[in-house]
């Protein structure tokens, strides 16, 4: 069995839904098909929620109307029969009347907000399943809210997901295509919740791991993982193979093509992940598996909204136990630390969740001196196979960045990652400089030396 996930742009137009039907029926394997919301819908729903929260009811109603218009037009082109269209209209009417009722609830809390944002995936999957039924496909819609569970910390409950999914799948052995929602889940209170932005990738991997799928395919709008962020850097190219570790680092450190946690469940169960392009299905994409080709430097990613905290203590740092006390403070506030560097008298750390920054810095001041922290920082992460017996990665990176002030450098923690911290305003310059130096420099040199 395989798990195929289609993202927002892949389901964002009626003709794309038609292509997806062709794709998922073009091979015989039984599939679980995970869908995101139509592109733009999650943002629109969040914006409706903002208006509702601010008691801007007229504004919320306007936004709901604009979104509804989009769906009314969409279904006209999605279905080709009267019966299909009638089914589509019923789905849109039902979900939009629920959306309207949600924004009338006062006060509009995060519970309503989460129910509201879940509507994107609830709409796309019901509309698609009705389309498959119209076309006579052997499919069924399996509600993610019946099996996708997170715990009080927001972490998926793998054992629960596996047990429920196995039971439900066993009830429909004759179905070839099983459609379900990405992103949405229930929390321990039984309320509707989600796996955070971009979470449909994570859903696919959690399902793939739970059922020990043969393969997980993430279908999106680009031909696999590129060597650098194509939104910022012009000359990028797809990487054909990555190890689980390399892909996990890239996803965690900002490669938007994958939700940061996507690789974990797949890696745990050894299920390969293939990234494919819905607009160009014959392109090879990227295969993520246990091993990969031995190219030294694979790719670069960047993660924004980082805060750097500088802890300084001549008195305490070399005393054993000091670092433990520092990290216990971050643990207490459930704030993960991304980068760490140390010297004899100082330790610097970065965090990307600054919700508890004031409380953390107040407690740190009880055990050390703090320098003013820096916001608006970016971690640039270079990923590849940097085993210690190979030379030259660091020198190339530093050479590329010689004109950029570096706040922190972290190298040697794993064989796959070299990370640097810079001010976010320098990100574009840094990514482009690294791109030229790490991926095109040798070619440029070759051209110079072979030139007549
Ligand atoms: P989906 O809606 O299918 O989940 P996303 O927009 O979340 O798609 O992810 C795909 C996008 O990720 C691409 O269009 C691309 O702009 C962006 N992206 C950022 N970094 C990378 C990278 N290293 N390789 C490929 N795509 C990347
Ligand atoms: N629809 C959700 C989002 O836009 C989840 C996803 O697309 O993966 O974040
Ligand atoms: Mg995505």
UniProtKB/TrEMBL annotation:
It catalyses: L-aspartate + ATP = 4-phospho-L-aspartate + ADP. GO terms for cellular component: cytosol. Its EC number is 2.7.2.4. ATP binds at residues 5-8, 220-221, 231. Residues 314-362, 380-437 form the Aspartokinase ACT domain. Residues 2-277 form the Aspartate/glutamate/uridylate kinase domain. It comes from the Bacteria. InterPro entries: AceGlu_kinase-like_sf, ACT-like_dom_sf, ACT_Aspartokinase, Asp/Glu/Uridylate_kinase, Asp_kin_monofn, Asp_kinase, AsparK_Bifunc_asparK/hSer_DH, Aspartate_kinase_CS. GO terms for molecular function: aspartate kinase activity; ATP binding. Belongs to the aspartokinase family. This is Aspartokinase. It comes from Salmonirosea aquatica.
């Amino acid at each position: 069995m395989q798990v195929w996930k289609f993202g927002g742009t892949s389901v964002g137009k009626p003709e794309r839904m038609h292509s997806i039907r062709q794709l998922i029926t073009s091979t015989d394997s039984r599939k679980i098909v995970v869908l995101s919301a139509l592109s733009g819908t999650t943002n629109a729903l969040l914006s409706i929620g903002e208006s509702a929260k601010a008691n801007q009811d007229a504004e919320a109603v306007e936004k709901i109307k604009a979104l509804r218009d989009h769906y009314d037009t969409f279904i006209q082109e999605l279905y080709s029969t009267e019966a299909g269209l009638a089914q589509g209209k019923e789905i849109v009417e039902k979900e939009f009347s629920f959306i309207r009722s949600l924004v009338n609830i006062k006060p509009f809390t995060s519970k309503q907000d989460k129910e509201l944002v879940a509507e994107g995936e609830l709409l796309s999957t019901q509309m698609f399943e009705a389309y498959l039924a119209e076309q006579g496909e052997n499919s069924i819609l399996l509600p993610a809210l019946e099996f996708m569970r997170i715990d009080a910390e927001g972490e998926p409950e793998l054992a629960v997901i596996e047990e429920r999914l196995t039971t439900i799948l066993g009830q429909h052995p004759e179905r070839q295509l099983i459609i379900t929602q990405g992103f949405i889940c229930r929390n321990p209170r039984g309320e509707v919740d989600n796996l955070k932005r971009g979470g449909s990738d994570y859903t696919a991997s959690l399902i793939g791991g739970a059922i020990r799928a043969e393969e997980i395919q993430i279908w999106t709008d680009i031909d696999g993982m590129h060597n650098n962020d194509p939104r910022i850097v012009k000359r990028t190219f797809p990487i054909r193979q990555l190890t689980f570790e390399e892909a996990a680092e890239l996803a965690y450190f900002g490669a938007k093509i994958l939700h940061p946690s996507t690789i974990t469940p797949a890696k745990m169960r050894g299920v390969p992940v293939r990234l494919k392009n819905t607009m160009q299905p014959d392109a090879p994409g990227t295969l993520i598996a246990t091993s990969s080709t031995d190219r030294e430097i694979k790719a670069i990613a960047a993660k924004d909204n980082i805060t750097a905290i500088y802890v300084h203590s001549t008195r305490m740092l070399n005393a054993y136990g000091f670092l433990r006390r520092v990290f216990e403070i971050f643990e207490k506030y459930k704030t993960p630390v991304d980068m760490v560097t140390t010297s004899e008298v100082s330790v610097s750390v970065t965090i990307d969740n600054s919700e508890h920054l004031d409380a953390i810095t107040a407690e740190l001041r009880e055990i050390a001196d703090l320098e003013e922290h820096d916001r608006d920082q970016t971690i640039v992460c270079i990923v590849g196979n940097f085993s210690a017996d190979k030379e030259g990665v660091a020198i190339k990176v530093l050479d590329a960045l010689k004109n950029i002030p570096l706040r922190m450098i972290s190298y040697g923690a794993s064989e796959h990652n070299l990370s640097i911290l810079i001010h976010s305003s320098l990100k574009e310059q840094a990514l482009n400089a690294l791109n030229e130096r790490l991926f095109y420099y040798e070619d440029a040199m070759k051209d110079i030396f072979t030139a007549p």
